[in-house]
């Protein structure tokens, strides 16, 4: 299992870094931030559209073939993007190749989460694995942009994009050849063409992911607006780093504890805490206070992600687990786009950053209200310890007997 963690870093850091690298490349080659925004948006939208398709293929054919083919196509798309950047750096051409990159990105994150959930029978160990998975994501969020910045400053954005492409290809191929990945066999698919979307619990979790994604979209722009108001360009990045550090701390503490309450009940409490932490940002009078409060605001992010992973494993119909995790990625991307739109509208009308932070907290409040435990296999499905571990058949996670199917 340690090898899965190492390869998780190798395959997922570039997923968090490549968008920033493409942004820098587009700015350098076109000289326009607007064009760069269009290029990166094309990649993000394409990724959100493509990842559930990749997830379904993994659930149907296993890890090795879908991941290997996707990695090869993705490497070609990155090559086309780099060539276009130097030969024909128009917005339309770059956006087309960036969309090809996003559409072909291998679903390593979703496959890894499904693997953890499927092959570990003990609930406590499984929660620990999902905790580490969330920590890898936090580290990728912090390390990816920093590495891209360093490489771009030293050698140029093209080398940063190429580095992301190489590490992503190598990490995906490595992951697909590890024994746990190769031995993972798809379960018999349950249900209709809708797959995991036929489960009320999965649909509810996707709605929650849209709302929490919107929170993050609003929050990022709120940090930038606060930095502009304070005439401190570095403040936004410092606040984001502090937010990530708070998430790391919260995830470690959450994963270290053995919980007696059911995950569906914990989800609401976590979202309520998330709302309170983000709302406190509205009281920040200056940059040092914002950075300090950002730690507490981020404290509930990783616990939410871990708890969400647990519930996806419970609610997904048989044979659809990777696709279910993939839809979660799509929902988060869609929510982030919604949050960017809301925050951009507020900032464009001169709304103070304190109000923007309050709006971000409001999305967490809505998520807590939406997260109804009964639809997530709540306490009525719990055993004597108050938890509701999923039933299993072969390598697939089954929904709890009284939970949604």
Task: Please describe what this structure looks like.
The protein has 405 residues and is mostly helical. It folds into two domains: 1-186, Growth Hormone, Chain: A, CATH 1.20.1250; 196-405, MFS general substrate transporter like domains (Growth Hormone, Chain: A, Up-down Bundle). Helices cover 76% and strands 1% of the residues. It is built from 15 helices and two strands. Helix 11 runs antiparallel to helix 13. The relative contact order is 0.15.
Contiguous low-pLDDT stretches (5 residues minimum) are: 379-405
Structural class designation: mainly alpha
Terminal CA distance reads: 30 Å
**CATH class category name of the largest domain:** Mainly Alpha
Shape: globular
Main sheet, how many strands, which sense, barrel? 2 strands, antiparallel
Please give the radius of gyration in angstroms: 21 Å
Number of strands: 2
- Average pLDDT, rounded to a whole number, is 78
Helix percentage range: over 70%
Count of separate DSSP helical elements: 15
- CATH architecture name of the largest domain: Up-down Bundle
Query: Helix and strand string, N-terminal first?
Result: HHHHHHHHHHHHHHHEE
Can you list the strand order of the major beta sheet? Answer: 1-2
Q: Give the tally of structural domains.
A: 2
The CATH superfamily name of the largest domain is: MFS general substrate transporter like domains
The name of the CATH topology of the largest domain is Growth Hormone, Chain: A
Pfam family, one: MFS_1
Protein name: MFS transporter
Biased composition (Polar residues): 383-398
GO molecular function: transmembrane transporter activity
């Amino acid at each position: 299992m340690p090898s899965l963690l190492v390869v998780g870093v190798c395959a997922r850091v570039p997923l968090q870094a490549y968008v920033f690298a493409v942004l820098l490349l587009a700015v350098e080659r076109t000289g326009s931030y607007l064009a760069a925004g269009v290029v990166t948006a094309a990649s993000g939208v394409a990724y959100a559209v493509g990842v559930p398709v990749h997830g379904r293929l993994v659930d149907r054919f296993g890890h090795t073939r879908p991941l290997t083919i996707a990695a090869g196509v993705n490497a070609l798309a990155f090559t086309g993007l780099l060539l276009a950047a130097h030969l024909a750096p128009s917005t339309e051409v770059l956006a087309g190749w960036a969309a090809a990159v996003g559409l072909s990105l291998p679903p390593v994150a979703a496959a890894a989460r499904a693997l953890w959930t499927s092959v570990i029978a003990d609930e406590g160990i499984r929660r620990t694995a999902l905790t580490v998975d969330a920590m890898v994501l936090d580290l990728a969020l912090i390390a990816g942009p920093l590495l891209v910045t360093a490489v771009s400053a030293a050698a140029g954005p093209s080398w940063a994009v190429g580095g992301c492409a190489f590490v992503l290809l190598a990490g995906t191929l490595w992951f697909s050849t590890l024994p746990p990945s190769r031995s993972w066999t798809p379960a018999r698919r349950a249900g209709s063409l809708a797959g995991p979307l036929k489960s009320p619990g999965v649909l509810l979790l996707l709605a929650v992911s849209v709302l929490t994604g919107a929170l993050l979209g609003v929050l990022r722009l709120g940090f930038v607006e606060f930095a502009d108001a304070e005439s401190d360009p570095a403040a936004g990045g410092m606040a984001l780093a502090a937010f990530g550090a708070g998430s790391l701390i919260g995830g470690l503490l959450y994963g270290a504890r053995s919980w007696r309450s059911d995950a569906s009940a914990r989800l609401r409490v976590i979202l309520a805490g998330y709302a309170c932490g983000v709302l406190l940002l509205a009281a920040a009078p200056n940059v040092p206070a914002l950075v300090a409060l950002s730690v507490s605001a981020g404290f509930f992010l990783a616990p939410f992600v871990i708890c969400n992973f647990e519930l996806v494993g419970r609610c997904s119909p048989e044979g659809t687990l990777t696709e279910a995790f993939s839809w979660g990625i799509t929902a988060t991307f869609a929510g982030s786009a919604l949050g960017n739109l809301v925050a951009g509208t507020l900032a464009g009308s001169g709304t103070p950053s304190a109000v923007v932070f309050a709006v971000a907290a409001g999305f967490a409040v809505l998520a807590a209200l939406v997260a109804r435990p009964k639809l997530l296999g709540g306490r009525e499905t719990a055993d004597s310890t108050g938890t509701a571990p999923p039933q299993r058949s072969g390598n697939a996670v089954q929904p709890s007997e009284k939970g949604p199917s």
